[in-house]
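Per reviewer request, we include the raw input and output of the structure prediction for the construct analysed in the revised manuscript.
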Amino acid sequence: MTFPRDPAAPGLGTSAPAGPPPEPSAGTDRLRRRLAERTADLKRVKAEYDNYRKRVHRDRLAIRQIAVSNVLTALLSVLDTVEQARAHGADDRAFALVADSLRRETAALGLLPVGEEGEPFDPRRHEALVYTPSHDATAAVCTRVLRRGYRVGDHLLRPAEVAVTGPPNAAARPAPPPAGRRFGAVGPGQGAAHPLR
């Protein structure tokens, strides 16, 4: 690399005074354009990589939530059995330790119960198995939880099966069956409709 000589340096002699800077040549303009293009390419590649990282992160979280939901859905029958045993008086200390440990570990994975007595009936979270009309009621309310429902985050694993008490006019309007269940027709002397599997 060479450096321009300083005309005022001793022993270098005199040289012509420096004039105005030379006008940019076509080569310099071409280099500036190529530099601007490469800079734009680099910014575009960086933005694409940032988007890719964010998408991979979202996908990993979604896959994790699906995996956790699948495991917890498989454990719902175990939780139901534990709850039934408690309701029937199984209060053995060893049983209580196992039940509490199971409940604590599933809660750590994000499993939350759905359906409490006294909360307003919500067809997105509850499945009404029994409806009792009451002139005192102003809105449909869950009066008894027949089988607890569960959710993970915003994802409902299973709706709570509940008994509902509400105004008499609400009983006259049948609610549509929950998604995934079809009900057969009721014939003479058959009583209530039974779910078809």
